[in-house]
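Sample 3 of the quickstart, ligand 2-acetamido-2-deoxy-beta-D-glucopyranose:
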Amino acid sequence: MKREATERSHYLAMDFITLFFLFSAIFTASAQQIQSNVSRSSSLTPTTNSTWLSRSGLYAFGFYKQGNGYAVGIFMAGIPEKTVVWTANRDDPPVSSNATLLFASDGRLVLQMGQEQVAVVAESSGSASASMLNSGNFVIYNSDQGIIWQSFDHPTDTLLPGQRLLAGHEIVSSTSETQYSTGIFRLKMQTDGNLVQYPVNTPDTAPYAYFATSAGGLGDNVTLNFDADGHLYLLNATGFNIRNLTDGGYPTKETIYRTTIDVDGIFRLYSHNLKQNGNWSIVWLPSSDLCAPKGLCGLNGFCVLNDRKASCACLPGFEMVQQGNWTAGCERNFTVESCKSNDGDIKYNMQEVANTIWEDASYSALTVPFKGSCAQACLEDCNCEAVLFKDRTCQKQRLPLRYGRRQLTDSTIAFIKVSTSTPTPTTPNGNILKENKKELRVSILIISASVGALGCMMLVISGIVFYKNHFRYKKLSCEGNVELSDDFAPRSFTYSELEKVTDGFREEIGRGAFGSVFKGALWNGQKVVAVKRLEKVLAEGEREFQTEMKLLKPDQTKTFTVGIRGTKGYVAPEWHRKLPITVKADVYSYGIMLFEIICCRKSVDWNLPEEESVLDEWVCDCFQSGNLTKLVGNEEADKKQVERMVKLGLWCIQDDPSLRPSMKKVLLMLEGTVDIPIPPKPDSFLSTI
Ligand SMILES: *[C@@H]1O[C@H](CO)[C@@H](O)[C@H](O)[C@H]1NC(C)=O
Ligand SMILES: *[C@@H]1O[C@H](CO)[C@@H](O)[C@H](O)[C@H]1NC(C)=O
Ligand SMILES: *[C@@H]1O[C@H](CO)[C@@H](O)[C@H](O)[C@H]1NC(C)=O
Ligand SMILES: *[C@@H]1O[C@H](CO)[C@@H](O)[C@H](O)[C@H]1NC(C)=O
Ligand SMILES: *[C@@H]1O[C@H](CO)[C@@H](O)[C@H](O)[C@H]1NC(C)=O
Ligand SMILES: *[C@@H]1O[C@H](CO)[C@@H](O)[C@H](O)[C@H]1NC(C)=O
Ligand SMILES: *[C@@H]1O[C@H](CO)[C@@H](O)[C@H](O)[C@H]1NC(C)=O
Ligand SMILES: *[C@@H]1O[C@H](CO)[C@@H](O)[C@H](O)[C@H]1NC(C)=O
Ligand SMILES: *[C@@H]1O[C@H](CO)[C@@H](O)[C@H](O)[C@H]1NC(C)=O
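Result:
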C-alpha cells in the first residue's frame, strides 16, 4: 500500500517535470533529436545524430565527449552542466568519432567501429523498440511493450528518482570528476538489509566499512528507494518503510534531484534548479566527516580534516607516487639499504606521526612501557617498517600502511622508519654482478608497468641472452625510446611502452592461468622479449598476504588446479598438490629463473654431482652453509649482491604462496628500494626428501 502511494507521488512529480520541459526545453545541439520511440536499425554516431533525447528534452542517451574520444551513456542534455548519470561499459576506453551505436536488427544495442563490433551496450536480443524516458531511464521493450532491459537496473555511480538499488547491488564511484570509469569507493545494498559504504576490492565486512545504516541487518531483500522529492529510504521485502535516510519533502517545483557516490567516497543528495540554471547544490550527505572514506589518501598516505575539507599527507620520508592523484598513494623518497650495516652505523631513525589511526595489519604485538621503547623495538627489527603505539601496546607493521587518518581524539601514535643517511644516486649501486672477461653473458630485463584503468600489473621477464662464460645485468635506458644501454638496473616500463614493444599485444605466444604472454621486440627489433600481461591482479598486490586466505571470491584471483601447465622445473609446488593457483605461481617460476641466471645453468641438470643437480636445493644448501661463492664458480662477482639475489630467489620459491613477494615487491627488492629480509628455508625440500 505504502509503496504504491510513494510511487504515485513520484510519478506526479515526474509529470510535472515533463510538462515543464515540454514548454521550456533547452535544445543545445542540432545533432540531438527527440525520438522517444527508437526503432530497430536506428543508429547514432558521435558527430551527427549523437543522442536520442527524452520527450522532456532533459535526458539524452548516446555519445558524450570523454577524454579525447567518446563514451556512450545517459546525460542531462537539458542543463548546462550536461551531468552524466550513467555510462555503458564504463571501463572501456573511449571510442573515436568513427564509432556507431547501432540498435541492431536482432534487437541488441551494440557499439561498432566500421563493420566490427567493439562492445555490447545492452544484451537485449528479441527487442522491438527502445525509449529514453523522462525519468532518465533508457528502456528496451519487446514487441508486447514488456521491459527487456533498462539502464536503471545497471547503475554506475548515480541513482535518479524512481530508481532503486536492489539487495545485493552496489553503485561505485568514478575515477575523477571528468572520467567515469570505476573509482575506488562503493555503496552496497547488502542482502542482510544493511546499506554500507566500503572501498572497492574489499570484502563486505565491518573492518572495511566507513558508513552503514545500521549495526545489524534489517531483513532480507531490502531496497534503497529514491523519490522525486529527495526522499531516500529503505523498504523491506513486504514494502514497509523501515528506515529514512532523508525525510524527503524537498521542493519539487522546477527542481530535480540525484544521488551520487562521489569520487571522494561520500554519498550525496544533490538538487538542481532548472529555472535558475545554477549548479548542483548538496542537499544531504550521511556524514560530514570527509576523511571517513577508507583509502582516500592511498597507500602510505593519511587524511587530515582542515576547515571541514579533507586533505592528504604522506608519511614522513615519503612522497606522492603521482602528483595530483592521491589514489596512487605515497612511496619512499629514499632507497632502503641493508638494515644490518657492516660498520655498525645506525642508518635509520623513527619519525613520529601523532594522533593517526591506520588499519592494523601487524605481524607482531608487544607490551611496552613507553612510546620510545616501541620505536626502539622497530629500529632493532629488520622486518619492521612502522609501529603503531597505543595504551602500551606496540604493533609492528610492514608497509604499506593504509586507511590512515588523523583523529585528534585518538591517542594512537605511528612511528615510521626513515633513512638518516644522505641519499646516494642509485645507479652505481645498481651494479648487481660485475662483468669479467670470459664470454658467457646473460642479460635480464625485468620490466613492469601499471595499467592505470585496469588496475593490473604487467611484467616482462625475459630477454635472456646466453653467451659463453660470463654474465652481467644490463640496464635499459630510462629515456623515452626503449633501448639497451650498458648501465645496469631493472627498469620500469609504462603500459603504453609495452603496448609499443608488443605491437599492441598482437602476437600471443602462450597463455597461463593469470594472463597471456606476448612476443615483443626491443632495441629496434634486435632483442626479442616475452611480455606477460597479468589479467586478474588486484591493484594492491602487497595486501595479498592478508587476503589470499583480500576472503576473496574464488573467481576473482584464484584458479584451481585442473591440469599442470608450465615448464617442468619451474612449476610451483601448488600445481602438484591440488591447491588453489594464484598469481604467486609465476613468482615461484621467476625465483627459479633467477637462480639459473645467478648460477648460469639449468634448473635441473643430472650431469652434475647429485647434490648439485637440482638447482633450487643446491642454492638453498649453499645459502644455509654460507657458501655462496660456490654458486658463481670462478666468476668475479660482488658477494653482497649475489647474496641479495639469492635471498630474493629463496623468497620467491617459498612453499607457501602467501610468503612469496608480489612481483611488484620483487621489483622493489631488485632495485634496492626495499630491504630483503633473510628468507626462511623453503620446506618443500623437507617434504620431497
Ligand atoms: C514504437 O514503434 C514501434 C514500431 O514503429 C511500435 O510497434 C511500438 O508500439 C512503438 N512503441 C511505443 C512505446 O510507442
Ligand atoms: C538523423 O536521423 C534522422 C532520423 O532517424 C534522419 O532522418 C537523418 O537523416 C539523420 N541525420 C543524419 C545527418 O544522419
Ligand atoms: C576514421 O575513418 C577514416 C576512414 O575510414 C580513417 O581514415 C580515419 O583514420 C579514422 N579515424 C579514426 C580516429 O579512427
Ligand atoms: C528475497 O528474494 C528472493 C529472490 O527474489 C526470494 O527467493 C526470497 O524469498 C526473498 N525473501 C524474502 C524475505 O522476501
Ligand atoms: C517489514 O516490516 C514490517 C514492519 O516493521 C514487518 O511487519 C514485516 O514483517 C517486515 N517484512 C519482512 C519481510 O521483514
Ligand atoms: C519516513 O519519512 C516519512 C515521511 O517522508 C514518514 O511518513 C515515515 O513515517 C518515516 N518512516 C520512518 C521509519 O521513520
Ligand atoms: C558552477 O560551478 C563551477 C565550478 O564549480 C563554477 O565555475 C561556476 O561559476 C558555477 N556556476 C554557478 C552559476 O554558480
Ligand atoms: C624525503 O622527505 C623528507 C620529508 O618527509 C625530507 O626531509 C627529505 O629531505 C626527503 N629526502 C629526499 C631525498 O628527497
Ligand atoms: C590515479 O592513480 C590510480 C592508481 O595508480 C589510477 O588507477 C587512476 O587512474 C589515477 N587517476 C587519475 C585521475 O589519473
